[in-house]
Amino acid sequence: MSLSEGRSQQLYREAKSIIPGGTQLLSKRPEMFAPDQWPAYFQRAAGCEVTDLDGREYLDFTHNGVGSCLLGYAHPQVVNAVVNRVQNGSMSSLNSPEEVWLSRELIALHPWADQVRLGRCGGEAMAIAARIARASTGRDVIAFCGYHGWSDWYLAANLNTDKALDGHLLPGLSPSGIPRGLQGTALPFVYNSTEELRAIVEQHGKNLAAVIMEPTRNMQPKPGFLESVRELSDSCGACLVFDEVTTGFRFRPGGIHPEYGVEPDIAVFAKALGNGHPIAAVIGKARIMEAAQRSFISSTYWTEGVGPAAALATIEVCRTQDVAGHVRRIGEQFQAMWRQLAVEFEVPVQVGGYPALTTISFQHPQSAALLTLLTVRMLAHGILAGGGFYPTFAHQSEHIARYRSAAEAILPEIGAAIQMNNIESLIGGPVRHTGFARLT
Ligand SMILES: Cc1ncc(COP(=O)(O)O)c(C=O)c1O
Questions:
Q1: Terminal Cα distance for the chain, rounded
Q2: Residue 148 Cβ contacting ligand 1 at under 6 Å
């Protein structure tokens, strides 16, 4: 059976007609990897192995649940905690005690924080954080850099111009459906540019509710940058919010920000916090978090027990085992491997990002086609591969070795395709999409 046949492809064709966009998350659209060939659905996932609907098995060398499954899929300790909660009922008319235990744990990991609110998803938790910051300051405007999810407060940045989010991880996001009245309420600045933030503060400081950013994502902060962000926020009374939705627990237990010695007013966690189970947390200083009581921030499923139970088990594993160190080492091995392969096979592959959040790209005019070809050929070797690898605690050196031998088998063809300029004809389907614009 070819990659373009089988139950996964059939189901995805149906999905596109009954689910707008085909999936619930842009980054999980098969078109983002290899249209018509990427195995859209899984029936089983354990460790770093995934089985698709047709029973084909793959090693996952992509983002492993979009960064959520830091410990690997179905980690036994997390599964036990979840199954235990489910068997005892995960929802009732009373509250789950795990939400208090989890809040306690998060505060213990971040002693600057006094209070916690829980949600279930990253974008949702960022919306909660934005609401709390606005409620606490009584102001409207938010300065931000980076990507923070699907909600109105953030996409409002693109109401003025479709270029505002360029350079912010997912450029070109459409503000369709966002009230025009929000124009001017979300102002982007470039990471590491104190000058751009200063200009926003000078012009809008009196109405600035928050500065929202990831403390780091794919580059180190310049010396003094985070400190100036803190100072500029303080100078106008804006809340400083660190979005640790993706960075949280990946570099150390809890957020990465303590490593930089700059305390925010609010920090937000999701993704790896539940190792694949929905849970998100907004932690913050009491004087700011208290504003959550004046606003209305409330939802039925924020009270269920599975998410917090999964988070407690995940935190326990991260605290007692060197998860972050392991993930860094695996990422380093992967990056070193690609640097060697690029030289050995004379292919223009460039490695980027931190080892724990690695990206690879082809420095070539047909980079998307080359990446698609790589993906398609790796699938034939039983490997899910694309432009990013977020390692997990389940990945071992032997998995890197399997990736390497598959890459060694296919790189001569890719090198020749570059020489012959016939890349697209070898893919066996369309080229992957590269961003939001192409999919709408
Ligand atoms: C930094 C950051 N914030 C927010 C989000 C949104 O999280 P979610 O997809 O869980 O809504 C993401 C997701 O990629 C993210 O990387």
A1: 31
A2: yes
